[in-house]
Amino acid sequence: IVQKIRVFLNQQASQGAERDWKKLIRERLYRSELEFVNPTNHAEFLNEIDRATRDQIDVIVSVGGDGTIHALIQKLADKQISFLVLPAGTANDFARSLGVQSMHINDVLGVVREGLPKTIDLVDINGALMATNGGVGIVAEIASRVNSLRRTIPGFRKVMTFAKQELYGFLLGSKILFEGCQYHRIQVDCPAFQGVIRTPLFLVNNQPLIAANYPVAPYTKHDDGTFNVTIFLHQRTADFVASVLRIRQGISPENDPLIMSFETSSITFESVEGYELAFMGDGELLSTSNRFEVNIRPKALSVFAETVKQIHLSDFSNPGDKK
Fold it and tell me: Facing residues of 202 across strands?
């Protein structure tokens, strides 16, 4: 049976124009029924996903970054279509968690022929789905700033091509240095914890890494029916910066007494003051609200992966059991 494969090309991604993706894909998957689509706007993007579903496509290949993946999974969740990621973005966190980020392009494409798709969990935030990591606080501010720069500054995408994930660290550092941290008082309600916290950063993680280099949730998995919540409780900017730097160096967050980390399948949190917060996930704005309901969507997405690349305990100082 000939595989029907639809390839979504995002040439606006930071590495989307670096290669002749069509040539590479045709050479490796020449026995498949291939069609390439390059939507020019979001509405066209959504229409093309709907058309792929109606056409009963076997595999969708995404050439882009985490933002492209985010748009696709909103429509592909619980569908009988398998998903392959060809990383062409900046951080490529999702591709990294599937083990395909470091693979040669021919090997990644070969997984469609030789591998079997597996199902992974997605996270539902006020009705929007997330595959990787997200949250409120300074991470949302940095992601929003990157997206704004990409839209407004000519040539910024080229800068992202060379700077890649280090750009996030640079913007985080400059934000803290020149503007400091904004703190939020948040009411949290879930089986693992109930109470009010004051935090500069509240994260929901469906995989270990955020922005490629920060293992904020080293023991979490995207196929076990739970997600990780990591809350930074540092009340001084200097302490928060020191904690982020330790994580960047590969030191497990469990060594920091001012970091709360736990696994759960659902959580509700809201602003105590009642003002709206921006929740950024997969590098995109998922929701703006004063209250968030977060739930696991188990086994919601069929994906191809050579290996599911998890971070091992030996990678960290003083390793312990998954929390």
Answer: 136, 231
Q: Under a CB-based contact definition with an 8 Å cutoff, are residues 301 and 77 in contact? A: yes
pLDDT tens-digit series, residues 147-185: 665 667 665 555 555 445 566 666 666 777 767 788 999
Say which residues have a Cβ less than 8 Å from residue 85's Cβ, sequence separation at least 6: 61, 62, 69, 94, 95, 98, 100, 303
Give the span between the Cα atoms of 296 and 303, in whole angstroms: 17
Return the CA Rg of the chain: 19
> Residue 34's Cα: distance from chain center in Å?
27
Task: Provide the b/e sequence for 38-59 (b: ≥16 CB within 10 Å).
Answer: bbeeeeebeebbeebbeeebbb
Both structure tokens of 206: 């469906």
Whether this model's pTM surpasses 0.85? no
Does residue 5 contact residue 81 with C-beta atoms inside 8 Å?
no
Q: Are 288 and 67 in contact (CB under 8 A)?
A: no
